[in-house]
Amino acid sequence: MIGKSTRIQTESGPRNxxxxxxxxxxxxxxxxxxxxxxxxxxxAFDIASGMSxxxxxxxxxxxxxxxxxxxxTYKMFRMFGDEYGFSSDNSTIVEHRKQRENHAGxxxxxxxxEPEIQDNGKVLDNRASRLRNExxxxxxxxxxGLKIIPGKWNHAVAKAFRAEGLYEYADKxxxxxxxxxxxxxxxxxxxxEMKRKGKSMPHIKTDINNIWSQSDGIKAFLSAMSDSGFxxxxxxxxxxxxxIYDEDNTQIGSVSRILKDVRQNDFFIMMEDFNxxxxxxxxxxxxxxSTKKAVGGLIKKSTKQExxxxxxQGLESFPEFxxxxxxxxxxxxxxxxxxxxxxxxxxxxxxGTDTENTNGRAEPDRADTREPExxxxxxAGINESNIRHAQHVVASAKIKFHFSNTVEIRDISHxxxxxxxxxxxxxxxxxxxxxxxxxxxxxxx
Length: 445
Known about the structure:
The chain starts with a strand and ends with a helix. The protein has 445 residues and is of the alpha+beta class. The protein folds into three domains: 2-149, BirA Bifunctional Protein, domain 2, CATH 3.30.930; 188-271, no CATH class; 307-444, no CATH class. Residues 300-305, 332-362 and 366-381 have low confidence and may be disordered. The strands form three sheets. The protein has a five-stranded antiparallel sheet with strand order 1-3-5-4-2, with helices on both faces. The protein has helices spanning 15-23, 38-50, 70-84, 129-143, 154-163, 167-177, 188-196, 201-214, 218-227, 255-258, 264-295, 325-329, 366-369, 384-400, 420-432, 435-444, and strands spanning 2-9, 30-35, 55-63, 92-97, 108-115, 231-234, 242-245, 251-254, 339-340, 415-416.
């Protein structure tokens, strides 16, 4: 059983209290006045106001987890009266019936209203009211054989029972002390605040728990909450807490309070893992973007880009692949992509005048002896098409092979494309060479 008490201030007047107890039929399936009337409640405010007292009415709200019969119900009223020193026979008692959230608990609950100013002019005692409320509830549960509900003051209640000589009751409370007490999802103040805004805290709590149960992870939960108009932010004072807000920026409550069986630290760990995963993805994206920026010059403009688009670009514009640079500077790098009729290593165009030297090999040509090449004639078949083809080959090499060597073509007129006809011409020349000439040719080709 749960029992709560509230002191209603005189200056607030009886209007809101009377309306809540007697007139809210849209929030309750039934409202039954068991004893007393609204006039008696209003009279209590008049008396307190005439005596300049701060409080006018003590409001008790009583509910049971298990069904109670009429005899048990009135016994519950008397026990609260005995605890605080008033007779419940003169109190105003109203019964409300409505379904509990998720059908958890008995559908009936009761409101007991007692004037703060008693007939003798004294004010009701209010010392340690929360502890005393729990003590009455635990004693009622033990005496009526009901399930003991663990509360915040279990240890203090057990101590109070021993002080009153109720050792049997204190022993039964020891088991309740070992049970984790339930947590209130929201306060009565939050409940009334949401009511004034036309919102239902029980419905909101149910909706959020449904979202949680249908989500397969923290990412899905956060996404579904956002779609439903909720957002979750980290607490400002307690960094381990996360607070839920609705679409109107109204604070609903902490995640650990609203969600069933979800502890604050457990949800904090889940959020930490989720945030760390986002950070890791952002770091990977940043690395990829920086890599693309560094390599930028070699990325194609489009998948349909032609080699001619690069024909006018020098290889030095691609600094990302400085391979063979040292060899190139030493003059050792050669391009296998182009072939010239005038070989830098040997003059194979003139094969009829070679003579053997003392080593039995062909005489070195002008390239080996560094003789001037002014008398070399331009081969036939050189035209603008061949020149364009050579430029195309160079550009294709840049794209396809990431070629970094600078291909210098001082005289483009000597460049010929490697065509089937050109290959056949080379074969015919090789056939005309002697054995020694062939060995020399293939060693230097």
